[in-house]
Amino acid sequence: xxxxxxxxxxxxxxxxxxxxxxxxxxxxxxxxxxxxxxxxxxxxxxxxxxxxxxxxxxxxxxxxxxxxxxxxxxxxxxxxxxxxxxxxxxxxxxxxxxxxxxxxxxxxxxxxxxxxxxxxxxxxxxxxxxxxxxxxxxxxxxxxxxxxxxxxxxxxxxxxxxxxxxxxxxxxxxxxxxxxxxxxxxxxxxxxxxxxxxxxxxxxxxxxxxxxxxxxxxxxxxxxxxxxxxxxxxxxxxxxxxxxxxxxxxxxxxxxxxxxxxxxxxxxxxxxxxxxxxxxxxxxxxxxxxxxxxxxxxxxxxxxxxxxxxxxxxxxxxxxxxxxxxxxxxxxxxxxxxxxxxxxxxxxx
Length: 349
What we know:
This protein is of the alpha/beta class. It has helices at residues 39-46, 105-108, 149-152, 158-167, 185-196, 209-218, 230-238, 253-261, 283-288, 301-313, 329-337, and strands at residues 2-6, 14-17, 28-37, 48-52, 55-58, 68-69, 74-81, 92-95, 132-135, 141-142, 177-181, 202-206, 222-225, 243-248, 263-271, 292-295, 321-325, 344-348.
């Protein structure tokens, strides 16, 4: 098998060649046919998250050690299975990556994402920037028949993250606007889902005109170019004077401040993006304006199945997908970091 691994943080991924792993017990060996590239991969590539004030939350503090085979949006063909794995060899499955320890109360409740000892594929365990990968158990293999593989693989992260973020939206009144901050791969995925769920109006804000053009073509009711001090005024106008919910897929101090500032009374700010930094906000205003802040991080196996069933059963606008060879993984990460491209890039071994 071949894989492209982070051997030194921030440096080009290195090609590794090794014998094919042999699955044991409940493990399943998957031949990767597509793997989405996520913005979280940039944090993993660089070794941590910016917390602002000169502080960083490092992967080492999370218990991660090098080398790392990135890739938490893999899809592929089952080619072998351990003796305890009940799965059919030859089927193509989406790999659910957000795996918990399997022993705690959260995992018992099938809330792997709340586990305190995660074994996430593409971080703690080798992921999909490879020709093959081991999956600990068949329960993490999801059927996506009928969906194009290059799109289906994005549902393991972009899809379920957007789905859960929308579920946490608070749109209590008929004239509440839903504002999506950031028209990257996850933001555009959320737009497609929101329109299919008949949220109205949906406003998208981004600093890239080409991404806003894509959002408008997809059906966004209005788009706002993030451009200096005029952004807040333009967004308030587009949202009819205030947003019921702002979902921030960027997560910078600037986007968080903007999101909180444009909420109507009783609104909700949903934090998704991990750009990083710190925010200062008057605590009294949370109560006086009756607003809430909610964080969200991907979703469960059940929630991933929900979004798969939703996009398969309805006419949902799909985020643009650009396939690239696996060998170009480092270049793809650099392009993502520079903000080049629209939609999602998928690596194909």
